[in-house]
Amino acid sequence: MRKKQTTPSPGGVALDDLRLLLAIADSKSLGGAAKRLGVDHSSAFRRLAALEDRLGTRLFDRGRGGYAPTPAGEIAIASAGRIGEELDALDRQLLGQDLRLSGRIRVTTTDTLLHILAPLLAEFRQCEPGIVVEVAAANAIFDLSRRDADMALRPAATVPEHLVARRLTTVAIARYAAPDYLARQTARGLDHDDFAAHDWVAPDESLSHAGSARWIASNVPRERIVHRGDSLLALLQAAKAGIGMAALPCYLADCEPALRRVGATLDEAAVPLWLITHPDLRPVRRIRALGEFLSERLRAQEALFAGRESVFAEH
């Protein structure tokens, strides 16, 4: 029996369709694409189904590994990518002509920096009430070229060359553990500096770029890693629960009375803290104003990021 041919429905491909295709291709899931586009899962599902119906072909195969493009989908994604790059460039160039001290700024940062960033944004709000700041807290690196965000505040070893980055300070990393965990190890006669003998909580592969993850990979045997997490906040909570030792940013863990810093900071794990934007957005007055404000305030907190303000360190 011959398979019935699907007849394409009338209508073309809209710009929103192109954005949906690219989001699914990048995230390999409909849920991830919906989150990225700011729509609910059911809306994204209906939009994809309607697009496939109009084109008369399936664009993605759904499997255990997520959404994989079909041959037709690969053609559509390649075209969407080319068109999307031109539209994003036009969008940035037009935005670069906006000289108002008002409007929206989307900032992406890590969840570990929110307790530092939020008070600064409250202060900035008092200075510039016409500017609305939207914060996207995620460990994933947002694509500034696609305008996923206008500005990024992130610890990172390197920054893509096509972006404009200000190095604000250095983020120190140290070892931390709960007092009861340390007491148990001391009772066993275990030295705190014997990395290979301790139980460790460590980042999973999604955080392999982090300075702490690189240090653990070089200094801790895999068999000593007893717990993993996909965020530093998850690792902090695991360390507080006494599961094991963790390598964490000092600005985050020094604020936790339930943790003790063990030994000196790990120089080879330290990473710069960057404020990043796209070069096309440098003329935008509101983005420049926020960038200058955050640069000044965050550089003033160098001691916190360098781990020199700890009151819980082990001696």
Automatic annotation (TrEMBL):
It comes from the Bacteria. It holds the Pfam family HTH_1. Signal peptide: none annotated. The keyword Ribosomal protein does not apply. GO terms for biological process: DNA-templated transcription. One of its GO terms (molecular function) is sequence-specific DNA binding. PANTHER family: HTH-TYPE TRANSCRIPTIONAL REGULATOR (PTHR30537), TRANSCRIPTIONAL REGULATORY PROTEIN (PTHR30537:SF3). Belongs to the LysR transcriptional regulatory family. This is LysR family transcriptional regulator.
